[in-house]
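From the shared-data thread, chain only:
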Amino acid sequence: MTIIEVETLTEPALDVFATLTEAQLRNRLEPEKGIFIVESPKVIKVALDAGYEPLALLCERRHIEGDAAEIIAACQENMPVYTGSRDVLGSLTGYTLTRGVLCAMRRPSPRSVEDVCAGARRIVVVDGVVDTTNIGAIFRSAAALGIDAVLLTPSSCDPLNRRAVRVSMGSVFLIPWAWIEAPVVSLGKMGFKTVSMALTDNSLGIDDPRLAAEPKLAIVMGTEGDGLAREVIENTDYVVRIPMAHGVDSLNVAADFYNRFSFNLYRTIYKII
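Structure, as C-alpha cells:
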C-alpha cells in the first residue's frame, strides 16, 4: 500500500473526497470515468465483496492498522491511502467520517432494465424519490425482503450517493438496479403487473389475494410528499392502500412507511404468515 500523509487541504488528488459534487463524481459526459464514495469499513467491505473497484482510501491514521486494515489488505498494493488526524480529515471533507474511513470507487457501467429484470418475480419501482435517506432505506428493505430488482425513474436520487449507500448499509451493492423511463408501460410489455401504492376509491387492501397470485409483480412507490402522479396511478394494473389508523393519510415514502409496508409486503406477497 502507498501511505500518503495529508498535510494540505488543497492537494488536487483529494478533490474526490472534498470538493467534487455528487454530479461531478458521476461524470455524466464521461460515465466510464464516474466515481462514487463509500463510507465506513463495513459498507466498503460489502462493496469490495460485490466486486466494485476501489481507487483510493481516506482514513484516520489510527485506522490503518485497525478498522481499515482488512480493507487495505484486500486492495491493490499501489492504491493510494491518504491519512491524517481526525480533525484534519474532518476539515477536508466537511463532516466526521463514520468509523474514520472513506473509499473512492469506480462507478459501474449502467445496467439495462432487461438485464436486471431477467428472471425477476417481484421488483420495486422508485418514481421520483429524491431524499437520499429514503433511497437507502428502500434498498435496505428491498434486499431484506428478497425483492429481485429495483428500478428508478431519472428524477429519483442516485442510489450511489454517499449517504444513500451508507443508509442502505451496502444493500445497493447486493440487489440489481437500473434506471427506467415510463416504467408502467415498459414493465407491462415485459409481462409484469404493476401496483401503485396510493389511496383511491378503488384501491385494494394490501392483503388482497390477487396480488400474491400474480407471477410477476412490480410495486411502484411515489414521492415523499405528493406520492404518485395521477397518470401513473390510472395506468397501473392495481392500486393498493396501506391501512392507516386515526384517519392518517396513506403513506408513500415517509419514515413510518417502511416498518408497516415491509411487514405487510412480506406477509402478503410472499405468504410467509
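The chain has two domains: 2-106, 113-269.
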